[in-house]
Amino acid sequence: MLSKSILHGRAVASRLSVSVSTIPPSFSSQWPPRASFTSQAEEEALLMTADSAMQKSCYTTINWTLKGSEKVSEAVKMMVANKIGALGVTDETGMIQGIVSERDYLAKVAFLNADPAKTTVKEICTWGLANLVTVSPENPIDRCMEKLLHSGVRHLLIRRSKDKSSGIIGMISVKDIVKCTLAKNDAQLHRLEDIVMVQEIARGL
């Protein structure tokens, strides 16, 4: 009677559209072809980038910017209404030049008993492109996580291109990055499981 692992291996081989009878006796690490182990969704998960996270983020469906001249009270209303922790801050031309977070409000307004209705967003935000923590759309999701942890922030702004002076086109949160990282890890685990199962088939023939 075939072992449970061999039976599961046959199911894996079937999913890979590989007939067990065609598996070469001299199994090598190059067979089956690497790409055949994963579905299209899994391949996409293995190649997650900052752009992948941005496309899945709630920031693509809401207004997440406001002018630096706006009052902090307005920024708080926007963050609470949209259940988010940060907003992009624009200059008078509409270009994103800064970021304001709930931390900024707590440390620079609430803690100091300042009046949020009289304090402007620009007074408490991180201002200036050179001071922002940014990534380009093609940055791998692992690199995004590293930058997040290294910088001690919970949001990354996404540049238009690799050029660090290019404009900001989006924002992602730690939640977005964690979701993509988990999806990538699951895809990697699934690939390894399939490789092991097909190897077991080869040894059991």
In short:
By secondary structure, the protein is an alpha/beta fold. It is 45% helix and 14% strand. The strands form 2 sheets. A 4-stranded mixed β-sheet has the order 1-2-3-4.
Secondary-structure blueprint of this entry?
Blueprint (H helix, E strand, L loop, with lengths): L3 H12 L24 H7 L3 H7 L8 E3 L4 H11 L3 E5 L5 E6 H9 L10 H4 L1 E2 L6 E2 L5 H11 L3 E5 L8 E6 H31 L1
Parallel strand pairs: 1-2, 5-6
Antiparallel strand pairs: 2-3, 3-4, 6-7
Helix pairs in contact: 1-8, 2-8, 3-8, 7-8
Provide an overview of this structure.
The structure is a single chain. By secondary structure, the chain is of the alpha/beta class. Helix content is 45%, strand content 14%. The chain is built from 8 helices and 7 strands. It has helices at residues 4-15, 40-46, 50-56, 72-82, 102-110, 121-124, 141-151, 174-204, and strands at 65-67, 86-90, 96-101, 126-127, 134-135, 155-159, 168-173. Strands 1-2-3-4 form a 4-stranded mixed β-sheet. Strands 5-6-7 form a 3-stranded mixed β-sheet. Strand 6 and strand 7 form a beta hairpin. Helix 3 crosses helix 8 (174-204). It is elongated, with a radius of gyration of 24 Å. Residues 16-35 have low confidence and may be disordered.
